[in-house]
Write a structure and sequence with these properties.
This protein is mainly alpha-helical. It has 14 helices and no strands.
Amino acid sequence: MNIKNIIKKLKSLSNPKTVEGMVRFGIAANKTLGISMPVLRKLGKEIGKNHQLAIGLWDSGYHEAKILASIVAEIEKVDGKLMDKWIKGFDSWDVCDQVMMNLFWRSPLAYRKAMEWCDLEPEFERRAGFALMAILGWKDKEAKNSDYDKFIPLILKYSDDNRNYVKKAINWAIRQIGKKNKALNKKFIKVAEDVAKLDNKTAKWIAGDATRELKSEAVQKRLSK
């Protein structure tokens, strides 16, 4: 497959009604085709890993093509320059999260970039930093508990950011890291409690929601096994 054929294939799978539903969930309609993730993953499997195609897909600007790019890209060819370029192309939370989940968390630069991006002002660029923290908490089985300590000051620094996609990502990071094991659960409950002390409505929401989950019977039962 070449770029032209893949874009043609994506357009043939477009569904305007699905786009309408995506817009209701805060996904931009611009250059969005309305293709489900299972369909994109199946297509990605058919294409296989192909970094050059991934670059072309991203540069096409289509919503689903960007997600597909993160599926077929070759992580060993992903450098910091590409990571910084792609986050500047985020215009919706799902492209941000899929790129983090499918690709960027595997990079040896992931921890450093998560911290760098949190200091960026644009909403989806800052979300990328905290979403990457959450996914590292979820997926990085080789991480030491101490690897997550460096995230704590940034969580505290930005928990007053009331933008929807930032505050939800911060909340996600606290919850996901805090569910990794018993020691991190205890540590990130304390992080949430420290966030709650901030004199800010957004911070109190982040903290309250995260604390409820981290202290919940279901989480505590799982971590005790």
